[in-house]
Design a protein that fits this description.
Strands 2-1-5-4-3 form a 5-stranded antiparallel β-sheet, with helices on both faces. It has 3 domains: about 110 residues, PAS domain (Beta-Lactamase, 2-Layer Sandwich), CATH 3.30.450.20; about 150 residues, GAF domain (Beta-Lactamase); about 70 residues, Rossmann fold, CATH 3.40.50. It contains 14 helices and 12 strands. It is an alpha+beta fold. A hairpin with a 5-residue loop joins strand 4 and strand 5.
């Protein structure tokens, strides 16, 4: 094996050599952003390029001859990846196999792998060569985008504000490097603060946040300042003293509160973040800002809808009151008390009209034009059980005799020529 050559120095098979005949190709492999690794049939690392060093955080010398599965894979993924490797050792090629790996920092990164058999000069399979692309950020962005869409759809469906904001926090949980997010909000501008937490939020921390008042003080401070408050050492910061046990249990080392502002710099919500990094990683703070913008959009929209709803209800109530006032005025205007009669015949008509008004029966009023038939009809209507309904006056002289029955009493479809639909009377 050549020093700095094709195999990891001090590998388990020193007699094995990979020959690069093209120096440019070799340089390309060494400088590729993707991880290029070679494994022996027993999963020992034979080759480790600079791309792998960058992604995993280990040099070639540190991983030489180590068991790849035990060193980098979460235990619940080892069996599946081992089965994939065995397929490649039998001569198959695999494409786009995705699995998480644990890198030096302890973070889980997601890689997509293409693998092929590694053969010697005689064509005998002596291992596998795999090329892995880090798709962690892509997966996080996809998850965040999907969750944000769910939040916006929930907002459009009119779901409770807490549920929608929990979806926003869920977007942060899926897209983050391991940070946890909760969102404090108000149902209305002057209402008390509430807390929205996503599914998957640590149970102990969730219970402590809802029970303790310490976070509220920090949230109120962030609201007052209108800018983020970051505590790089949350376990020792006096403002988080009541939550120290929960922080230690969940390995939380830093925390921050990020206000979401709207028009006129009004604070609409506060995103609370927790991380195992100290200080929090810049990516986590950048994601928090993104979540704050989305949370602000959700809250601002809900406040605007609530305001418009109250405004509409107020206008509707005003219209109802005005209509009721008008109805009372009309009832008084056309009441029997407003009708003046002297002749015995007219007094008898009024007596009969008052007698029939409370009943549910049809009344026929006849008389010459201008004698007050419609006025009497309105008085009967105003004194009847139907007085809260509309009174509809129809000028029968304007309706042709052939259409009179149809217009007043309606007709069924096909009752006569041209009756192409049912018409109620």
């Amino acid at each position: 094996m050549r020093e700095g050559g094709d195999l990891v120095p001090n590998g388990p098979n020193p007699q094995l050599a990979l020959s690069f005949t093209d120096a440019q190709f070799r340089a390309m492999v060494e400088t590729a952003a993707s991880a290029v690794i070679c494994l022996s049939p027993d999963y020992r690392i034979l080759y480790w390029n600079e791309g792998a060093q960058h992604i995993f955080g280990y040099t070639a010398e540190e991983v030489a001859g180590k068991n790849y599965l035990e060193l980098f894979l979460p235990e619940n993924y080892r069996e599946g990846v081992s089965a994939d490797i065995q397929r490649v050792l039998r001569g198959e090629r695999t494409w786009g196999h995705v699995n998480p790996v644990r890198v030096r920092s302890g973070e889980l990164r997601t890689l997509s792998w293409n693998a092929a058999p590694l053969t010697d000069s005689s064509g005998r399979v002596i291992g596998i060569v795999a090329v892995g692309q880090d798709i962690t950020e892509l997966r996080r962005a996809q998850a965040a985008w999907a969750a944000e869409n769910l939040a916006l759809e929930g907002m459009a469906r009119g779901e409770p504000l807490e549920s929608v904001l929990a979806m926003v926090a869920r977007a942060g949980l899926q897209a983050a490097r391991g940070a946890q997010y909760g969102i404090y909000f108000r149902e209305e501008p002057d209402a008390p603060l509430h807390l929205a937490l996503p599914e998957g939020f640590p149970d102990l921390l969730s219970a402590e946040l809802r029970r303790r008042k310490a976070p509220l003080a920090l949230v109120e401070a962030a609201i007052g300042l209108g800018k983020p408050i970051v505590t790089p050492s949350a376990q020792t910061d006096a403002r988080w003293l009541e939550l120290r046990q929960a922080f230690e249990t969940h390995g939380i080392r830093s925390a921050w509160a990020y206000p979401a502002t709207g028009a006129a710099d009004q604070v609409l919500a506060v995103v609370l973040g927790f991380s195992s990094d100290s200080p929090p990683h810049p990516d986590e703070l950048e994601l928090t800002e993104r979540l704050a913008r989305l949370a602000g959009l959700v809250v601002e929209n809900r406040w605007a809808v609530a305001y418009r709803l109250r405004e509409t209800e107020s206008k509707l109530q005003t219209a109802v009151e005005a209509l009721e006032t008008l109805r009372r005025e009309l009832s008084q205007q056309f009441s029997f008390e407003e009708l003046v009669a002297v002749s015995p015949a007219m007094l008898e008509v009024l007596r009969l009209a008052k007698q029939v008004a409370p009943t549910d029966t049809t009344v026929l009023i006849t008389g010459e034009t201008g004698t007050g038939k419609e006025v009497l009809a309105r008085a009967i209507h105003a004194a009847s059980p139907r007085r809260h309904g509309p009174f509809i006056a129809v000028n029968c002289r304007a309706i042709p005799e052939t259409l009179m029955e149809s217009e007043l009493f309606g007709h069924e479809k096909g009752a006569f020529t041209g009756a192409d639909r049912r018409k109620p009377g």
